[in-house]
Design brief:
The protein has 150 residues and is mostly helical. The chain contains 8 helices and no strands.
């Protein structure tokens, strides 16, 4: 996912997501000094966005408003993506956005960023077992939500 889309998934608020991405890019020169060229740069950038978004969630300790994602224009189709695939992707994104914050954050960190349960636990200050339970609950809710809509 793009940096903005990742921040939006974690925070649930377009305004907060824009601010996080702006904060990341403003601080990028300083962060690049600590960048070790292991793995893909995009993966490192997504981890940075996730950390900044998590810091924002911790600082605010409020449930973000989960506004529906804006309707895409034809320009939002990825190369070769059909209308049906676009609708399916939007349904998944809406279902993820509707998850309760603790479940959504763990799901996005695991599925979109690729954090291990140990990394999620350390980032959120929870136990590894709690991370696993939240992921399991998120997946079950998504299955119910998306299964009901098909």
């Amino acid at each position: 996912p793009t940096a903005y889309r990742l921040a939006l998934r974690l925070l649930g608020s377009p305004e907060d997501a824009q601010e996080v991405v702006q904060d990341v890019f403003v601080g990028l020169p300083r962060a690049l000094a600590r960048y070790e060229e292991r793995g893909l740069f995009a993966a490192w950038l997504h981890r940075l966005v996730a950390r900044v978004a998590l810091m924002r969630l911790r600082a605010e300790r409020r449930r973000p408003t989960t506004e529906p994602l804006p309707e895409p224009g034809r320009g939002d189709l990825t190369h070769g993506e059909s209308d049906a695939a676009l609708l399916e992707r939007l349904a998944v994104e809406a279902a993820v956005a509707a998850l309760p914050e603790p479940l959504r954050v763990v799901f996005v960190l695991r599925a979109a960023v690729g954090y291990s349960h140990e990394e999620i636990a350390a980032a959120l200050g929870i136990r590894v077992g709690t991370s696993k339970v939240r992921l399991h609950r998120a997946v079950r809710l998504l299955q119910r939500t998306l299964g009901a809509s098909s």
